[in-house]
Known about the structure:
The chain has 121 residues and is mostly beta strands. It has a single domain (13-116), classed as HesB-like domain (Hypothetical Protein Aq_1857, Chain: A). 12% of the residues lie in helices and 40% in strands. The protein is built from two helices and nine strands; from the N terminus they run E-H-E-E-E-E-H-E-E-E-E. The chain has helices at residues 17-27, 78-81, and strands at residues 13-15, 34-41, 47-54, 62-66, 69-73, 84-90, 95-100, 104-107, 114-116. The strands form three sheets. The chain has a four-stranded mixed beta sheet. It has a three-stranded mixed beta sheet with strand order 1-6-7. A two-stranded antiparallel sheet has the order 8-9. Strand 2 (34-41) and strand 3 form a beta hairpin. 24% of the residues are buried.
Amino acid sequence: MAQAQARPRPQVMKVTEAAATRIAELMARGEGVGLRVGVKNGGCAGMEYTMEWAKEQGKYDEVVEDKGAKILIDPKAIMFLLGTEMDFQTSTLKSGFVFNNPNQVSACGCGESVQIIPAVQ
């Protein structure tokens, strides 16, 4: 009997060209091994996205390499970030990373926190 092949795992997040370019610019400064992305409880809508430079890759980090950008995803955040696209946008008044997350059901008026439900497999 033939042995079953493991199904390829879907990529947790995708990165736009603008986000990849900005991450590469910042990584060129030698900040760390990648950008760690996660979520935490907080804010008026219930959750907030987190980002920090990772000095090292954690044993259980999910690694996403897309368009030259290396993102380390906190294992506790994977179910909240499945299918998310990370973008970098610049406007007249501000610039920053933006998460286009299909699991996000609402956001607060100030734009600092969101309500996210875990992805259903």
